[in-house]
Amino acid sequence: MRHKIKKFIIFLNGTYASSHIRVLSHNTYSTTIDKIKNETLYAADGGLNYVIKHNLNSQKIIYIGDNDSLSRKSKKFLDKKNLNINNYNSKTEYNELTALNKDKCFSDFAAILDLILKDNLKNQVFIEIFYGLGGRKDHEMANLLEAEKFLLDLPQGGLCYFHGGVILSTIDCMIYSEKNLSFSVFSKYKKCEIEISGAKYEGHILLERPSHGLSNQSTANEVLFKPLGSLITIYF
């Protein structure tokens, strides 16, 4: 039985806004910033700065953060929406704010993932992340590790697409791009099995160790990935 897949769009505080590929999983596609219309957007602290900068047409904004990276425009926006950054929980019909303590032991992104996980234990999940890569390397690594933890905790599996060049997935997915796209596939687990089609090296492939990644190149406009029981990471 195919499980229902739900998509979420998250804005973080990195530097990479977009990628040159499109990702598909179970009839759910990635998008680009200029095509976001009437969506519910999740913003982790400084990620709200980008939502404001791009003047995105959103159905709802769900903001979670400790407010240490907000621009003046973002603070004014929250005030205009009657969301008080000094109040731990503020809600209106169209927006939500959850303020976090600055001395917490987890990231703002982790708090958003925990919220999504709690409500989607019976669903597969497609998460598209803008501005999740770039900037401080420790923040970038923390984002990738939290995404990995989220996918491993998700009973029905899912996918996290970081614009800028990384996909983590435990479910089937496809990437659309021009031919001859160079990419690599890794898994941190021993003897990870994966099926690939539409690439120079395709078929049933065994990744023996974390250092035994597969450098590959697309031969078509579509490349299909099928993880067989493990989490894979695709770099492009």
Characterize this entry briefly.
The chain is an alpha/beta fold. It contains four helices and 17 strands. The protein is elongated and about 55 Å long.
* Strand portion: 35-45%
Our measurement of the CA-to-CA distance between the termini, rounded to an integer number of angstroms, reads 31 Å
CATH class of the largest domain: Alpha Beta
Specify Rg, calculated over alpha carbons. 18 Å
CATH names the topology of the largest domain as Rossmann fold
CATH superfamily of the largest domain: Thiamin pyrophosphokinase, catalytic domain
SSE order: EEEEHEHEEHEHEEEEEEEEE
Number of strands: 17
Report the principal-axis shape.
elongated
Give the assembly state of these chains. Answer: single chain
In which order are the strands of the major sheet placed? Answer: 6-7-5-4-1-8-9-10-17-12-15
- The average pLDDT score comes to 92
Label the structural class.
Answer: alpha/beta
Please tell me the total number of domains. Answer: 2
What would your notes on this structure say?
With 236 residues, this protein is of the alpha/beta class. Helix content is 19%, strand content 37%. It has 2 domains: 5-168, 3-Layer(aba) Sandwich (Rossmann fold); 177-236, no CATH class. The protein has helices at 47-53, 72-80, 108-118, 137-153; strands spanning 5-11, 22-25, 28-29, 37-44, 57-65, 89-91, 95-99, 124-130, 158-162, 166-169, 173-176, 182-186, 192-197, 203-207, 214-217, 222-227, 232-235. The strands form 2 sheets. It has an 11-stranded mixed sheet with strand order 6-7-5-4-1-8-9-10-17-12-15. Helix 3 runs parallel beside helix 4 (137-153). The longest helix is centred in the middle third of the chain and has 17 residues, at 137-153. The model has no long low-confidence stretch (mean pLDDT 92).
